[in-house]
């Protein structure tokens, strides 16, 4: 157990910035969350665990709770997105995974600048 890495926390805060009840509840889980595992392909995707005794579950919602697109300036210059999106996945109202997916052959190994996420 421990705190979230800064890049993971920044990405989650950006994705959960809304004022709706689900975003507010999931954002409240951030101080009680930690990285429990990483994707085997080498990408930046992380599995998350939350201390369920410390914070309540979010209200009922679909998973992914949030999906956002992303195109870096370099991707746009090359003619298309390499990293088209990120997802916040949940399990029983708790953060469970922050996933980044791409259409390129190489895994995306770093989280995008939160300011470039297109919600």
The figure for the number of domains is 1
Query: Low-confidence stretches at least 5 residues in length (pLDDT < 50)?
Result: none
**Envelope shape:** globular
Q: What is the percent of helical residues?
A: 10-25%
Describe the protein in words.
There is one protein chain. The protein has one domain (6-118). The mean pLDDT is 89. It contains three helices and six strands. It has 119 residues and is of the alpha+beta class. The chain has helices at residues 6-15, 21-28, 73-77; strands at residues 33-38, 46-50, 66-70, 85-91, 94-101, 117-118. The chain is globular and about 45 Å long.
List the helices and strands and how they pair.
Blueprint: H1 6-15, H2 21-28, E1 33-38, E2 46-50, E3 66-70, H3 73-77, E4 85-91, E5 94-101, E6 117-118
């Amino acid at each position: 157990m421990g705190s979230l890495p800064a890049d993971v926390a920044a990405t989650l805060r950006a994705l959960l910035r809304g004022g709706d009840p689900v975003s507010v509840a999931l954002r409240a889980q951030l101080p009680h969350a930690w990285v429990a595992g990483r994707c085997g392909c080498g990408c930046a995707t992380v599995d998350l665990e939350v201390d369920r005794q410390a914070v309540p579950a979010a209200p009922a919602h679909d998973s992914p709770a949030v999906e956002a697109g992303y195109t870096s300036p370099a991707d746009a210059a090359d003619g298309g997105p390499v990293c088209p999106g990120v997802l916040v996945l949940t399990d029983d109202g708790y953060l469970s995974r922050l996933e980044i997916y791409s259409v390129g052959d190489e895994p995306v190994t770093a989280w995008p600048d939160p300011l470039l996420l297109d919600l």
